[in-house]
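Batch manifest, entry 17 of 40.
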Amino acid sequence: MEREKTLILLKPDAVQRKLMGKIIQRIEEKNLDITALKLIHVDKAIAEEHYGEHKGKPFFGELIQFITAGPALAMIVEGPKAISVMRAMMGKTNPFEASPGTLRGDFGLDLTANLIHGSDSPESASREIQRFFGKVVA
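Output type: structure tokens
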């Protein structure tokens, strides 16, 4: 089975609530590999590029304010079907609708502060990995 790469961002709420270790443990227990990892502070320009598809929507400003509010943990996660496996592990975007056993279902507190971002396709993974890690690892 072909290995995929995906970008995973543990958002400022996950970092602030000290959930990084628990989330990384779940990723590793699923036998996925974390091949790059860095603690970053997402600046406004990167945030606006990352959430560009939501520009003009009423919640766009709130997304930008949230993701730039504190440190985030950026990871490249690799493995068979890594994109779909990680998205299933994350659960629905709204933590109140996410199933128990998913990251958002177990730890999410709010629609905006929903802990984690994961790429939704190989194309977005490539673009997002380059955005947060540069061309060297993409």
